[in-house]
Design a protein that fits this description.
Blueprint (H helix, E strand, L loop, with lengths): L1 E3 L4 E2 H9 L5 H8 L9 H14 L23
Antiparallel strand pairs: 1-2
Helix pairs in contact: 1-2, 1-3
């Protein structure tokens, strides 16, 4: 089904963009154009992003949340 009539993007194109790494409507717009013009489809695009991410198991390094540890040792204390 067409999601974005401005550029002729389909729900499959949005899902493919998410599968390729897009996780926000701006990233989807950069990859396939959906939601990048008038913006009327952004709510639908976000719904497709959520549904696609929910149906795809998280893999390490695939946009999954990662815990970061910062070294906050003052300079000159090494």
């Amino acid at each position: 089904m067409y999601v974005c009539l401005c550029v002729g993007a389909t729900n499959q194109m949005v899902s493919d963009a998410v599968a390729a790494g897009a996780s926000t409507s701006k990233e989807v717009a950069a990859m396939c154009g959906a939601g990048g013009d008038c913006g009327r489809c952004r709510c639908t695009v976000r719904g497709i992003i959520e549904a696609t991410l929910a149906a795809t198991p998280a893999r390490p390094g695939d946009g999954a949340l990662r815990h970061l540890t910062l070294d906050v040792t003052p300079v000159g204390s090494h």
